[in-house]
Amino acid sequence: MRERGRSNGRYILGLVKSFNSVIQVNGRRYRWPQKPLVVVCLDGSPFDYLYEAIAAGVAPYLNSLMASGFTQVVEAAMPTFTNPNNLSIVTGVPPSRHGISGNYFLDRESGHAVMMNDPSFLRAETIPAAFSRAGAKVVIITAKDKLRELLGSGLDGTCLSAEREGQPVYSPLLSEYVLRRGVEIMKSVCPDILYLSTSDYVQHLHPPGSREANEFYAVIDHHLSELDRSGARLVVTADHGMSAKTDEQGLPRIIFLQTLLHEWLGDGKATVILPITDPYVTHHGALGSFATVYLNGDADVSNVVRRLRALPGVEVALQRTAACRRFQLPADRTGDIVVCASGDTVLGTQPKDHDLSKLRAPLRSHGGLAERAVPMLVNQSISLDKNIRRLRSYDAFWIGLNAGG
């Protein structure tokens, strides 16, 4: 748990200065909250899980929210992984601005993959941090500890993780703890801004409509209804969707890029980075639908791109400049080539790097365009300017603080 103290006098002074004012963060303007704002990121939750839980009769609050609140399909940031999207949500900008484009990138000088979990890699201020320094009371709770330092960067408030609080990582209890603690904090502390981010453990294992998924979303539904009853404006979105990555026999569909590039170019000519790679290999075996390729020496980038595009299961292969422009990625943390697999396929390096024996169910994963469509739900009807034609998941704070009813 990270807490930084603040005297009551400073807090009151901040409220006097900031109530009804506007805070500018990363070039966007946010109004001071007129009531508590709760933003919830349901990890790995496309609309299918919500629809199936509603159809099963276990999610009455979500059903009422869709009927009487604001409901829209929005776009997640690319790549559709947890860290880039959580940081986009809390900064209100894409990875090209905040710099977190995955869990890893390749340091060309050292030749080593670098993990981006430290706040020093973050290039943008977070919205919660900006409001906390202006006097707002802010609390952040995340499921996995890998996000705690990034989400808490610059925060004059509380940032904690369920994992660090002793909750089991490979269990629905991790996410349930986040939401339950959120409800408790709203009842006891009632912060001005509360950000809650869950885990996608259940979604990696169980498809929409399964008994296990419906039971999980029934618990989510209960806690969301409790957050609603606190009187807060509630905005619910997701960091990415989730797709089955298997063939008709339930076996993973995998393109081993490092193996292929070795065959095409020779030893040491290319390095594949899988930005999904993290300590939680039981979730996905470090297999996702997005990869970056760093080429060494005199390899013909255009030719490699053409060959990658011809592979069954590859949806997109782009040179760095085109990829950064299309997906709003930071150029210095992106390889020479970006590859996105199709919705039923994942990208790996070479077979020896992926221990599939740790998978507990047929492979389900994310990272590509197929997992980009996610929900945004608000617990009141709101009107948007007619010129706003596309919303993204990282508009959640803007919707929560700026959009009128």
Task: Set down the secondary structure blueprint.
Layout: E1 2-3, H1 8-18, E2 22-25, E3 28-31, E4 37-41, H2 47-55, H3 60-68, E5 70-75, H4 82-91, H5 95-98, E6 104-107, E7 112-115, H6 127-133, E8 138-142, H7 148-151, E9 158-161, H8 173-188, E10 193-197, H9 201-205, H10 211-229, E11 233-237, E12 243-244, E13 254-256, H11 257-265, E14 270-273, H12 281-284, E15 290-295, H13 301-309, E16 314-319, H14 320-327, E17 337-341, E18 346-348, E19 364-365, E20 373-378, H15 396-402
Parallel strand pairs: 4-10, 4-11, 8-9, 8-10, 13-18
Antiparallel strand pairs: 1-9, 2-3, 5-20, 6-7, 11-20, 12-19, 14-15, 15-17, 16-17
Helix pairs in contact: 2-10, 8-10
CATH top level of the largest domain is Alpha Beta
Strand content: 15-25%
* Residues in helices, as a percent range: 25-40%
- What is the CA-atom radius of gyration, in angstroms? 21 Å
Please report the number of helical segments.
15
Question: Features of this protein?
Answer:
alpha/beta, Alkaline Phosphatase, subunit A, eight-stranded mixed beta sheet, four-stranded antiparallel beta sheet, 15 helices, 32% helix
Architecture overview:
With 405 residues, the protein is α/β, with parallel strands linked by helices. The protein has two domains: 2-241 and 372-402, Alkaline Phosphatase, subunit A (3-Layer(aba) Sandwich), CATH 3.40.720; 254-365, Gyrase A, domain 2 (2-Layer Sandwich). The protein has helices at residues 8-18, 47-55, 60-68, 82-91, 95-98, 127-133, 148-151, 173-188, 201-205, 211-229, 257-265, 281-284, 301-309, 320-327, 396-402, and strands at residues 2-3, 22-25, 28-31, 37-41, 70-75, 104-107, 112-115, 138-142, 158-161, 193-197, 233-237, 243-244, 254-256, 270-273, 290-295, 314-319, 337-341, 346-348, 364-365, 373-378. The chain has an eight-stranded mixed sheet, with helices on both faces. Strand 6 (104-107) and strand 7 form a beta hairpin. Helix 8 (173-188) runs parallel beside helix 10. The longest helix is centred in the middle third of the chain and has 19 residues, at 211-229. The chain is globular, with a radius of gyration of 21 Å. The relative contact order is 0.20.
